[in-house]
Amino acid sequence: MQILSLIDWVILSATLLTIVVYGTWRTRGSKNVQDYLKGGNTSKWWTIGLSVMATQASAITFLSTPGQAFNDGMGFVQFYFGLPIAMVVICMVFIPLYHRLNVYTAYEFLEKRFDLKTRTLTAILFLIQRGLAAGITIFAPAIILSVVLGWDLLTLNIVIGFLVIIYTVSGGTRAVNVTQKHQMVVIFIGMLIAFFLIVDKLPQDITFSKALSIASVSGKMEILDFSFDLNNRYTFWSGIIGGTFLMLSYFGTDQSQVQRYLSGKSVKEMQLGLIFNGLLKVPMQFFILLVGVMVFVFYQFNETPMNFNPTATELVLNSEFSEEYISLQKEQQALFNDKQKLIQSFIASENPEVSKHISIANKANDALRNKARLLINKASENQHIKVESNDKDYVFIHFILNNLPRGLIGLLLAVILSAAMSSTSSELNALGSTTAIDLYKRNTGEKTEEHMVKASKWFTFAWGIMAIGVACIANLAENLIQLVNIIGSIFYGNVLGIFLLAFFFKFVKGHAVFIAAIFTQFIVIALYFLDLYQHINLPFLWLNFVGCAIVITMACIFQLINKNDTTITT
Fold first, then answer.
1. What is the pLDDT of residues 529-568, one digit of tens each?
2. Rounded to whole angstroms, what are the CA distances from 206 to 64, 318, 404, 490?
3. Count of CB atoms within 10 A of residue 118's CB?
4. pTM over the 0.85 mark
5. SS3 of 3, please?
6. pLDDT mean over 396-412
7. Residue 340 pLDDT > 50
8. How many whole angstroms separate alpha carbon 235 and alpha carbon 334?
9. Dihedral-angle region of residue 564 (phi above 0 means left; psi in -120 to 50 means alpha; beta otherwise)
10. Which positions ≥6 away from 130 have C-beta within 8 Å?
């Protein structure tokens, strides 16, 4: 268990409390729905851009992405290749339409185009997936602090959740936008400092270019994969096709993002904000992955634990498998010593033959770590204690806690927690507004402005409690950032298809879309589980494209069959 120094506590606490207090104070007193749900339409493009970016860049981004790069290299950046394309489409199609119709939520448009039941179904699909995701964005930083402080996850989930609830309920959309600007500043500064410190901590004769060479011979700098092999989860084509559909769904139809740019002063401000996000997001993700690669290089010269999750290590060392685990640790120590000689030889000569041996040594180390995971899983099963053996999400936090100077540890923890708060606040804000506008107000009739503001606050609070509940029962997947994207991919393709039908297929009416959407959602869920249990090979990113294609195809077929549907279109 890591004990934080006083200066770390001061920096961490001051950063988080300042954000909460400032957001609550700056946005107090929203008296009408326009102010509370759309921030009074006062946001400038840079506020929109940073807010959109902060909504997507949760703690999971800064917790899991470096660990993803540590294990698998830079290839994950291909996941974001579709984002700039999606930003252009949304600026040209979605934003002008939302602005012209003066909607509070994206789903209001669907009733105008189709009917009430289609609007309600789509809103419910959003609420399900975003409600689950909100719980995970609380759960992720709770894991960090449970490792740092030795606190139980239940307490941490509640504390983090209520910190976000305070200013999100109090100030609504404007509170989210105002705080996210400052959160992104903290995040950028913290990650830049972390990167330069990692490079500085490399041996004196290891320049940045040599560090990249070491990463390259270990396969960590392979950015582009143009293969059509479905066994490769992240390729150029899955990023361009699946990624574009996922980003179109997320930024164009997910209320947690739509609400960020609907707060803009004008169409131009909204469009500039999204273009700003499109230009900056891919380089930002590239940089975060590069931080993870530099952590990998750092650990080429410094010994790594057999497993980065200290709870897992403690469990297995106190089990009947402790001798086997210790034996693996000794093998890892010997392998590390041999690898030092190879790396020094490579630095001196850059001999391709030596680089092959370094790659072989790293693969051998990976094999030892896999054996260690199996032992941890066996110990976990025998003792009936659930513990995560896959340690990708612990890599970066292990480096921070064990290698950064005091004060900076507090700053980096503040970065990760700020990201968690920014993402969760956007999600709760969107969940509350969607419930209030699309379900409550639409099905109970007109209400006063004051009543709707109160209702929105109560719904936001309720979703905050529900998100805390999801966090309390959540469990780690292979990688947290993948878990969030899997949840999104299961729902987003279907939702995007509904919106594309609304935009471009004017002959399709509401009833056909409604039936097609229900069938499609069951089909996509079935496809996911078929892939999960290895009956088919369909990486989750492709579910976005598949879901979109299925709902469009089925809706068109149903409409041609049922020509009597006369739902009015706009």
1. 998 888 888 888 788 889 999 999 999 999 998 776 555 4
2. 26, 39, 19, 44
3. 26
4. no
5. coil
6. 83
7. yes
8. 35
9. alpha
10. 254, 255, 256, 427, 430, 431
